[in-house]
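fyi for ur records
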Amino acid sequence: MSIFTDFNIDFDLFSAVADTPEMFESTGKTNTLRVGREISFKGSINGIEVPASAVLHDAKLTRLTLLKQISPNTGKEYFLVTGIMRPVRMDLFVTLDGEKMNIIDVLTAAINEKSMNKITREQFLETARKIGLNLTDGMPYFFQQFGASIDGWTKAREAFVAAGAKDVIGSMNNPGRIEAAYQHNDGVPVTAFEVGTVDREKSRTKQGFLNLIDATVANFERVVQLRKESKLLRVKVDTATGWSQEKTQKAREHADLLSAMSRQWVSNWSGAQQRIVVQSNGKQETQNVWDPVNAPCGRFTMLVDNNPVEVDLWTNSARANTSNTTVGSSDNGSDPDPF
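which gave:
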């Protein structure tokens, strides 16, 4: 007999606190992935929204960094926390025409849609592994939190160090605005982490992380497109007649560049984007370099000596231990230029 029998309350209702904790997450633009649970979120493919979900199997935190930034709009300083989880193993799903499909099967079906030679799921995975897109054994996951709480950072750093992380800022040749950096070679287990989204309309470069489905599909699409362009250009060079030596050399160099760009940051759940540098006059310069995208993440739980440590980097968070109001943050905590 339960000790609560006499209270005439439906305590089955309260079991949701333990059984479905995701119900109590913020209703904003974030979702929290938890080990062993399937968590639904809004995915997108080429800008079109699709129902999606993710099952996190395991993750390890290997890097935490604190930077002091200056807002180009206000000139005020704010803190930015970045990190890397490596590896992260998870399964991604989307529902298309009422059918729930693993993202692996979606990409395989997309390949077979108009190809003469059909491939199997395993053949796709073999090719994906060759280019670095490891959808089964895990990939790195880059994250960041704009306008981070310094108290939240302190708690995260202390727990990370207690788990064995080392201070590595002294080994950096040019730390720039990096205030602190810690590395854990083996990685600290992470049992849950928040995934936010960026409003690209508020970004000066119109870039940023949208969701895991968009990042995965776009990364694969980028690799295929650049490899195809490189191959077609090489064929054109080899079959061309009457080209000068200079024109031939430039074409081959460009084909090499396209191939090199296709190999940059493929192994990354949070995706990659072409580098755009904003000049002092406001003009944007697109460079032939791809960088990893940092997905918004202000909260995560790591295991230190088998004890869960909940990290909250949000400023003015309802869960945080402080109410530091000196730095504001955007509604998703991750806008590329929140101030």
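The longest strand covers residues 48-70. thats all i got for now
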